[in-house]
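As the work plan foresaw, our protein records have gained a structure token line. A representative record is set out beneath this paragraph:
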Amino acid sequence: MDPVTADVPTPGAPGAPAAAPVRPDGRRTRWAEHRRARREELVTAALRAITTHGAGLGMDELAAAAGTSKTVLYRHFTDKEDLYLAVARRVNRLIVRELRSAVERASSPREALAGIVSTYLGLVEADPEVYRFVVSHPFGATARDPERDPVQRLTRALADETARTLTAHLRAAGAADTSADALAHGLVALIRSAADRWICTPDRIAATDMAAALTDLAWGGLSAVLARPADPARPAPEEVP
């Protein structure tokens, strides 16, 4: 037994004094908020530097382009991976927010798919260097822990959003929706792979043209496998004797 606390009544026990409310340390709270704000400022500076100078910047170049030093960066980020993850999380939040806004305006599964494709490609084209920075894992980040990989997390977020949208539209139309989740993940893999290849093509076509072509390709496959309500006017397939 600890001799210092042996005779101190346990809080809440009979005869024990009521525990005094714990007041937050104002200075500590202000300092934590300052550090959080400073981290966000450095993430913004890093994004601007990547946009201007390209996805291949190292930590020294990132610090210089951001108008600070590598020592300051390491004061707010534990290592290169921490900075990479902070940048990737910011980009992921933007993409998911814009995609949700796009699908909320859709009135049909095809329109929702077109919104997802056009929004994603538009964001990629708007800042291709930042996109390359995120998907290329420039500092070897997350190699030891795939669950922390922001690219995989973004892919799952896109697929989940696509699945929710498709499922809602399918249910409203009276169609079966049991395959929507798996189909959505397949569609997102198609969209991401196409976007990665397209953005690296020097003479690439416009984002609007690529979005239209990719939507046609994806919808052609999706519409062929989605279950539809039975159509009385459609003849039933002949039974095999």
Notes: The radius of gyration is 26 Å. The longest helix spans residues 26-53. Residues 175 and 229 are 5 Å apart (CA to CA).
